[in-house]
Design goal:
alpha/beta; globular; 248 residues; Rossmann fold; 7-stranded parallel β-sheet
Length: 248
């Protein structure tokens, strides 16, 4: 399937886990992919090589998503190199879980800065390019934590709920110019982030999931690619739960 052939896509937080899986899926479907990294240049180089081995162009940028100037510089560089920006996936995210009364100001502000402000920064930088071209697809990776709230995640839940509001507002603003905005609300997905959960917490989570298992990045990537493709051209403002039924 080459339904993203010759499209140019930016994906934040794509050196591992969900972002990496989405990047590879998009490349398999023919898209040129640009992504950011924060710390590991070697890891970024490995992902870049994987993408290029699929016969597409790939770009890696050291970029802090929480800094608007850096986001703009990356977006402009991608536009110059690829000639267009057809899609943006805001995937970068961190957790600093604590009960609210024990949560520091830094725990709160850093999660909001990366998970929510980071998405704003990249949308702010890329939206004009898409609007001028009168085409584009923006996908925000949110969480069921932003829909139902989870204990110990007040900062994360607030950021992810903010992404839902951002998605819906954005869809209404840019739809008339042919740009779409959607969100994927993920449940428990097997990644580095969930691998550190204590066994007792995992058992409790599994008991709440009707499908009886955690999701995998392979569950997420095809849905993300579909929402970026022209096959989803009449879908905007949607928040699609990909959670095994957790948030029903």
């Amino acid at each position: 399937m080459k339904d993203l052939q010759r499209k140019s896509i930016i994906i934040t937080g794509a050196t591992r886990g969900i972002g990496r899986a989405v990047a590879l899926e998009c490349a398999r479907r023919g898209a040129n992919v640009a992504f950011n990294y924060v710390k590991s240049e070697s890891q970024a180089s490995e992902v870049k090589a994987e993408l290029e081995s699929l016969g597409v162009k790939a770009l890696a940028f050291k970029c802090d998503v929480g800094d608007l100037k850096s986001a703009r510089e990356m977006v402009n560089a991608v536009k110059k190199e690829f000639g267009a920006i057809d899609a943006l996936v805001n995937n970068a995210g961190i957790t600093r879980d604590k009960v609210l009364v024990m949560m520091s100001e830094e725990d709160w502000s850093e999660v909001i800065r990366v998970n929510l402000t980071g998405a704003f920064n990249f949308v702010r930088a890329a939206a004009f390019i898409m609007m001028k071209a009168k085409r584009g697809s923006i996908l925000n990776i949110t969480s069921v934590s932003g829909l139902v709230g989870l204990p110990g995640q007040a900062n994360y839940s607030a950021a992810k709920a903010g992404l839902v509001g951002l998605t819906k507002s954005l869809a209404k603003e840019v739809g008339r110019l042919g740009v779409r905005a959607n969100a994927l609300a993920l449940g428990f997905i097997e990644t580095d982030m969930t691998s550190t959960l204590p066994a007792e917490n995992k058992a409790q989570a599994l008991a709440m999931i009707p499908l009886g298992r955690f999701g995998t990045v392979e569950d997420v990537a095809p849905m993300a690619a579909f929402l970026l493709s022209d096959a989803a051209s009449y879908i905007t403002g949607a928040v699609i739960n990909l959670d095994g039924g957790l948030a029903m």
